[in-house]
Amino acid sequence: MQDGLIVKALSGFYYVQPEGGGDVVACRARGLFKKQGVSPLVGDRVRFEAKDDGSGEGTVIELMPRSTELVRPPIANCDTALIVFAVARPELNRTLLDKFLVLAELAGLESILCLTKADLLDGAGEDAAALRGRIEELRKTYEAIGYRVFFTSARAGTGADELRVALQGRIAVVAGQSGVGKSSLLNRLAPGLSLETNEISEKLGRGKHTTRHVELFRVGESGLLADTPGFSSLEFPEEIGPEDVAAAFPEFVRLAEGCKFRGCLHLKEPGCRVRQAVENGEADAERYDHYAAFATEVRERKRRY
Ligand code: GDP
Ligand code: ZN
Fold first, then answer.
1. pTM exceeding the 0.90 threshold for the entire prediction
2. Ligand 1 centroid to residue 146 C-alpha, Å
3. Of the candidates 130, 110, 111, which has an alpha carbon nearest to the alpha carbon of residue 121?
4. Phi/psi at 283 (5° precision)
5. What is the pLDDT of residues 36-90, one digit of tens each?
6. Is the CB of residue 182 below 6 angstroms from any atom belonging to ligand 1?
């Protein structure tokens, strides 16, 4: 028996990468799993047995406990959300950025922020200067909260090496709206991947192909990156309440110790340290507005049902 990691699931086969290297083994799951109602997932750490007939096939015998379990895309043990936005084209949508950060936090993932198309910051002229100013503010805001922010440009060929280093030892899923440069970025992070970018699909006169299976690709020595975008549904999970949304804003969690009431949701409560911090400029007002909108949305939804 050997230890390994499932890197791909397709047509009833689980492709297991043996720990310590070697060729991927195409495994069937042991019949017992079906009886127990469990199915192996990409990202699962497993024990498996390879047939000794040189066929490259085998059987998954045992699944190790999972640290996280994403539903869409179905991945086990994912620990990182690589959240991708372009500095411009399309314009950076901060509501969506904060939503991705909350969804990642709720799924138990650490977020790394990647700002693509950094070449657009280099232009001369007023527009580029204004964009530089806005993006620099944004970087400061998110770094102060504790998120790491990386800049990349597929066009200028910059930033991918630093990001690759940050992904070592992690299982990551990429999140970001279409057109921000995810495919271009992934192709640079994992050169074996060759995802079709919009430019290419436009040339060929078809929409981008969508992969129907999930696969983890190696990034550098020890990073793994899913080729399927994460958080395709932008809905908050049904079971969460406004207190979970509050817990997903790290800077407000830190301030909440100073709130008058325990369990303060920082909405209308008196003696709220978070609202005070927003008013006197210690905390970012736009983050607060997004927090209040998300918390209210989740609370209203709970009332309806
Ligand atoms: P995806 O939809 O997020 O996967 O984005 P793509 O990788 O397909 O890129 C979308 C568009 O942005 C394409 O037209 C790319 O040429 C363009 N693009 C991607 N990366 C960069 C970059 O670093 N700089 C600039 N200026 N454009 C880029
Ligand atoms: Zn409060």
1. yes
2. 27
3. 130
4. -120, 155
5. 888 999 999 999 999 999 999 999 999 999 999 998 889 999 999 999 999 999 9
6. yes
